[in-house]
Design a protein that fits this description.
This protein has five helices and no strands. With 235 residues, the chain is mainly alpha-helical. It is rod-shaped, with a radius of gyration of 30 Å.
Length: 235
């Protein structure tokens, strides 16, 4: 797996994250990673790439749900126009005192009204299906952000070990301001605090839990709307 692919996905997840992400861990701090560290990184990186592909593929599901809603609205619009036309024809039949035509048009109007009622129920179901699809898409985005957050946390722990060893080797008892920036550069190279990465990861997990709970509520409404639509019968 090419590392630039993983890094691009990590950047994407940072953009979609709902909370501020700590600075990426400098790869220079990972030179002393163990075999176990490498295994952990590899597993998480593969999950990150897999989740990004899943997210990309799921976008087509959302587009299909959007198309169904658009079609449903178009069908309701046609029924509305048909109602207007039948109303006008019935009015003219009344002016002509053509009771047979008037009764026939009244029956057609009643049938059209029933069709409109059912179409509105269908559209309610389709709207909720779209909302559910979009929420599931957001959940996949959050799952991706959680995986990246976990990966960064694991890297932060390795980086902290490296920094601690580096300070010990240089005879430093504690950090000095910009100590690591002087060695490696100023961008993202300050002392690593794994606790910040862990806190960020946990906030992402909590956000994901809330999104899943919200999705369950939408799904319940969607199922109820589907039952209402399928059980509808004209009087």
């Amino acid at each position: 797996m090419k590392r630039y692919h993983v890094l691009s996905v990590m950047l994407f997840s940072a953009l979609i994250g709902c909370v501020s992400m700590p600075d990426p861990v400098n790869e220079a701090y990972l030179v002393n990673q163990t075999k176990d560290d490498e295994k952990i990184f590899k597993v998480l990186e593969e999950k990150v790439v897999s989740k990004k592909l899943e997210l990309d593929n799921y976008k087509e599901t959302i587009k299909n749900a959007e198309r169904k809603v658009q079609l449903g609205r178009s069908e309701l619009s046609v029924l509305n126009k048909k109602k207007s036309l039948l109303d006008e024809e019935k009015r003219l039949a009344g002016l002509k005192e053509d009771s047979a035509a008037e009764n026939d048009l009244a029956a057609q109007l009643e049938k059209n009204d029933h069709a409109m009622q059912k179409q509105r129920l269908k559209l309610r179901f389709l709207d909720l299906s779209l909302e559910n699809a979009r929420t599931l898409g957001k959940i996949r985005e959050s799952e991706l952000a959680v995986l990246v957050g976990e990966l960064n946390y694991e890297k932060a722990k390795v980086a902290k070990r490296y920094q601690d060893k580096r300070m010990k080797d240089l005879g430093k008892d504690k950090e000095e301001p910009s100590f690591f920036a002087k060695i490696f550069g100023s961008s993202g190279d300050e002392a690593i605090d794994p606790g910040r990465y862990n806190a960020y990861w946990n906030r992402l997990l909590e956000g994901l839990r809330k999104e899943r709970d919200h999705q369950k509520d939408i799904e319940t409404k969607m199922v109820e709307a589907e039952k209402a639509y399928e059980s509808f019968t004209a009087p």
